[in-house]
Amino acid sequence: MDERRLEIKVGAFLLAAIGGCLGLLYLMGELNLGRTPALAVEFSHTGNVVKGAPVKQGGVPVGRVERIVLTPDRRDADGSPLPVRMDLSIEPASVAALKEDASVTIATTGPLGEAYLEVYPGSARAAALPPGKPIRGVDAPRLDLVANRLSNFLDSASKVLEEDPQALKTLVSGVSSLSHTVDGVLSENRGDFHAIAEELALAAKDLRALSQLARADLEAGGKGARLLDDAAESAKVLRQSLPGLTTEAGKAVGGLAALSGGFNAEDGARLKRALDKYASAGDRLETLAERGDRILARIEAGEGTAGKSLKDAQLYDDLKSLVSDLRKHPWKMLWKD
Q1: pTM
Q2: In 3D, which of 63, 54, 138 has the Cα closest to residue 97?
Q3: Are 126 and 100 within 8 A, CB to CB?
């Protein structure tokens, strides 16, 4: 009986040890319970993020890094190296909220804490992120590069100081002289600066007044609003009338095309000759009209028989008497008394 109890205790201890190991592996990210990567993020550097690192959204864990793949020859659109690809498994709700402008940054829980990924879903107006499209991650600052550049700068400064020990003193003197000069300019022209500030304040005040007037004009009942209403009404009338006008113009053009469509080269030559004849006849009529004008002018001036007849009243009366006498005594045209 005691042996049976001992076997049960040993079995329970082993099961507890196995469960603890599995839980530890799961917490370390080494155990994958059938999860599949739902999002791919591309970086130029891992930023000390390791496999199994947590993925957070708004500081709340929503997944973890499932796989880190190195592709040395991959580059971005600008040609910069982009060798690191991280496959993340995150909650479906977080994946559904991602937009095309979503971003993933590398953060740490403290200055020396664990590195993790922070997901920003993107703006509400952007389109949804297509399934399977990778996100360009925001690279973390490279402290090694910063230290290297700072070291190069210090080396260059050291070389300058070795070549010219007075260079630093000259630089400090120049900065001090520049600060004194600027202080002197500000002190001497303090009144001018004050006047400029007042003028800027007045200009801002005028701009505010102008904006208020413009707002009043554009509000309902203002001149600007009426002008816009008139323009809208004119546009409405044009929209109503323009289609009819264009239709009539199209018909007229179509009629001209139908009329001229049957003309050939010979018909065109005939038409040209007829136009030349009409032009010549018009010139002749114009010449005759000019001659008639000259004759009428001479008659009105009293020149010639017709003109003298019109101007001489006695001659008109004699002719009238002669015609009356001939009507009464037509035989006088054959012989005289």
Answers
A1: 0.41
A2: 63
A3: yes
Instruction: Specify which of 27-36, 80-89, 266-275 reaches the highest per-range mean pLDDT.
Output: 80-89
Place of tokens 């008497």: 321
Asked if the structure places residue 163 within a domain, the reply is no
**124/41 same-domain check:** yes
Do residues 250 and 320 share a domain?
A: no
Contacts of 28 (CB under 8 A, 6+ apart): 52
CB 129 within 8 A of CB 99: yes
Contact between 49 and 108 under an 8 Å Cβ cutoff? The reply is: no
The total number of structural domains in the chain stands at 5
Q: Is 119:94 a contact under the CB 8 Å cutoff?
A: yes
**Residue 334 counted as domain residue:** no
Note down the domain range covering 99. Answer: 34-141
Answer whether residue 237 shows pLDDT above 60: yes
Verify that 134 and 45 share a domain, yes or no. yes
